[in-house]
Each structure stands twice: as C-alpha cells, then as structure tokens.
Input
Amino acid sequence: MKILIVDDSKAMRMIVLRHLRQAGYGDADFCEAANGLEGLSQVKAESPDLILSDWNMPEMNGLEFLRKLRSDGLDTAFGFVTSEGTPDMHMLARDSGALFLIAKPFTVDTFRETLDAAGVV
Output
C-alpha cells in the first residue's frame, strides 16, 4: 500500500506518519506533499492507494485538492486529517468524496479505527 500525506507542516506530516506506523501501517510506502498542488503532482508520480490531507494549506487547500482529483476522474481513497472537525466540515468532506475526517488531537487508535471502518487496508 502507498500512502500520500499532504500537509503544509513538515512536523505534522511526521506525526501522521508515526501514528500510521504505530497503527499497523508500517509496511506501507509513504510519500509527502506540502500542499494540494504538490499533492496533485505526487498523485500522478506515485499513484497512491490512500491520500491523507490537511484541510487548510497554502497554494491549494485540501478541499480544492480533493475536488480537483474527483473532477479529473480519480477515485483514490481520501481522508482529511485536520485541526477543525465541525459537523459542517464532516458533511462537506463526505459530499466532496472523502471517506473520513480525523480531527486533531488524534491518537493511534483514532487512525486504526477510522481506517478500518473506511475499509482502507
């Protein structure tokens, strides 16, 4: 499995990566991007099985990134890992094609349970 982590914070990308490894995804191949535009390039170059993206980023935010992927006909499994998790954001994420939204603060169990529930293995 190949997982793309998209977040403008290098520290947060490392935290998400560590949580994923501890949640049982240590055998996955990981790639990274700092915003949605870089994410689009990584999707083309790496063909990930799962994308985990922050919502708020410069250049192209996570929602714009997701919508661009879907408008291009790509149905790669996609979830948000973000600091905001209002009910409206959850609905907007799902309506736009995301499988889930994990709000910070999160735990290793949050990742394991959310990815299992979404059928991401």
Remarks:
- Helices lie at 10-25, 36-46, 62-71, 87-95, 108-117.
- DSSP finds five helices and five strands in the chain.
- Residues 2-117 form a domain with the Rossmann fold fold (CATH 3.40.50.2300).
- The two ends are 8 Å apart (CA to CA).
